[in-house]
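User: Hey, quick favor. My workstation is busy. Could you predict this chain's structure for me?
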Amino acid sequence: MANEPRLTRELDSRSKNMRTATWAPPELLPTPNPEPGYAFRWVRVSTLNTADPLNISAKRREGWEPVKASEHPELQYHIPEDTISKDVVVIGGLMLCKTPEEFVEQRNNYYAKQANDQMNAVDNNLMRQSDPRMPLFNEKKSSTTFGSGK
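Assistant: No problem, here it is.
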């Protein structure tokens, strides 16, 4: 054991010690290369080959703009030949859209405020309790159990 020759640094590699890659199912929709300052989202343009112009119009008014296929060549091999438009990325009735990250943050803040206002309304309703014989309790906690519960 003491007389065994030692491997040179070139022959000693990490690839021998690395774990083998594991199989994972493919993603249904490809992920575009990130663009600084933009967020991406897949928007429904059709269901069962029936166009959905109301959804497209609503998302456009929210600030989502279609992504041109020429802007993301890494997605070109995912786009079927029979798409609605060759200029936009559409896969399986979903169109890739982008919007500035500020819009996404503003939208998230808007809906967080809506949810907070609703919780405050529920809390205020609980606080104006009129009948002391029927107390209401405000316990904002939940628990999750696993197994048979024994």
